[in-house]
Amino acid sequence: MFYSHQLLLTGFFVIYSLTIDAQQPEITQVRSAKQAYEQAGSHIRKKQYSDAITLLQKAIQEDPHFASAYQQLGDIYRLTEAYTEAKTSYESVLKINPNFNSLTFYGLAISNFYSGNYAEALPWFTKYAQSPKLTDKSKLQIEKYILDCEYGMDAVRKPVHFDPINLGASINTPNQEYFPSITADNEQIIFTRRTKNNEDFYESEKTPKGWKPATSLSSNINTEEYNEGAQCISPDGIYLFFTACNRPDGQGSCDIYLSKKNGKDWSVPYNPGYPLNTDAWESQPALNADGKRLYFVSNRKGGYGGNDIWCAELKPDGGWSEPKNLGPNINTPYDEHSPYIHPDNRTLYFSSEGWPGLGKQDIFMSVQEDNGQWKQPTNLGYPINTAKEQSGFMVSTDGNTAYYSSDIKGGYGGMDIYSFQLNEAFKPKKVTYVKGSITDFDTQKALSAQVTIVDLKTGKPAFEDDEDNNGKFLATLPQDSKYGLTIFKKGYMVYSENLALETQNDRAPFILDVKLKPIKVQEEATLKNIFFDTDKFSLLPESKSDLAILIRFLNENSTVSIEINGHTDNVGTDKINLLLSENRAKEVYNYLIGNNIKASRLSYKGYGKSLPIADNLTEKGRQLNRRTAFIIKSIN
Length: 636
Prior knowledge:
Blueprint: H1 6-23, H2 31-45, H3 49-62, H4 67-79, H5 83-96, H6 102-113, H7 118-129, H8 136-157, E1 165-166, E2 176-182, E3 188-195, E4 198-207, E5 210-211, E6 215-216, E7 228-233, E8 239-245, E9 254-262, E10 265-266, E11 282-287, E12 293-298, E13 308-313, E14 324-325, E15 336-341, E16 347-352, E17 362-367, E18 378-379, E19 391-395, E20 401-406, E21 416-421, E22 431-440, E23 450-455, E24 461-465, E25 472-478, E26 483-488, E27 495-499, E28 510-516, E29 524-527, H9 544-556, E30 560-567, H10 574-594, E31 602-606, H11 619-625, E32 627-635
Parallel strand pairs: 22-28, 30-31
Antiparallel strand pairs: 1-21, 2-3, 3-4, 4-5, 4-6, 7-8, 8-9, 9-10, 11-12, 12-13, 13-14, 15-16, 16-17, 17-18, 19-20, 20-21, 22-25, 23-24, 23-26, 26-27, 29-32, 30-32
Helix pairs in contact: 1-4, 2-3, 3-4, 4-5, 4-6, 5-6, 6-7, 7-8
GO cellular component, one term: cell outer membrane
Domain OmpA-like: 519-636
Subcellular location: Cell outer membrane
């Protein structure tokens, strides 16, 4: 339901009709064979392929030299992806009449290609390409297959390391499982399961012993009458974007929907509407790390082929911008599917039928350059990609583990979900995550609070979470920058943390246990993202995020008066340190006044090295001692 195979089926029936026309001179003289053949044609038109196969086999039994019956049998096997049987049928045609029909060459080529026999497929594609009545479109298609064969032969000669691990019986069943979505901490998975013709979401949590048995996600989302699937989950596990088809509030055949987790259940899905959804086919959403960019697949007008990958931006009012096509370095005249944008916000993985590959859909990787352009994609290679379909690919936050869906021999049945260690060449940029809980310092009860993480290099938010978070937050952050984290809740002291990720060599996450202190006289809070040059007191631009949260704190707690404190380490004389700390506190004081905070609510004082909070014998300790803080002086 969430893939569009219309073009593939149309292509088959065009070829089939040509075959029927060409076969008329080859009709058998054996009456019983002819009768079975004609009855098979009736079943084919009704898509009753099993009955058609039985009748064609009977026709061949009655007349072993009935080339048209073998050809038609091969076409049905090819359509139903029974490529070994198709190959045998086409070879029988050629034994009877080597020049029966050029479409026999095409059928034999396709059957070998999708069996992974690229060296055997190539000469048949080449021979079919010489057919005199090929249309320009058919010529381009065959040229692509020839390139795919050449790529496939080379890829098989140079395999990449690949050791897939089935996620096991808690996740996979004899049904079809695909489109895995995993939270940044690798502790929760949501995936699509197809039972008979119905697609629904299932979820599981990871324990030290492995994944728990998967259960249905939510009755608010899963339905019996509609299909739900092709989803993505935000890194913190709070927002779910997914595809649903033919719903009463839909705008096209399939639309993108949104649900938010409230406690332990999910909200009733919401259709964001136009321009994200149109009367075309929209599916397979992928949300970036900060939740402000959504990639998805659509066959809407203005693309390069059947299904293209598009991207929309979240606007300040909560709506979505007019989606933009990712362009010719990603999209082709053929179909692209299942985009996944890694939390580094630059590495895109997706499936494509258009770029040189090994079969139906290969997985590719592309990196967005600083100018916003995408590099031409790289095939992840064999045997990650094979002649079969690969889809629903994603990579863990640390970049080490990949997850995807495939029909690998030895699985539980059909498409199963697998994990494997990702090759170094295909890893994204270093990313880690920040995971925290927020509680009241006195009562230890969970507190919903606003969490903001700002990239201190650019001044732009890297993560924003509202106060409806149940005291939990999780954010993924690229490790090529430094960040300031602030937590705000009215009636409580400000919490500030500095995340210097660019100095980390590993991808270890930050785990924060934040205990917010209620506002009271003499309560103190340290602002860890107030910066000055060495031995100077002019505020650096990176200080703006903490200054902004302090201004908000004073505006929303209007009865509070504070003293701004400056502190230094023990390097230098007492006199110099005392003066420096006082000038730095005064600089913050002046900044607040310049932003409409009344001077009557403010005071400042420098304490020099007199109040250390860490050992001055180490650089880390001295760094902690060089700080700006504020104390509640009165509450009127």
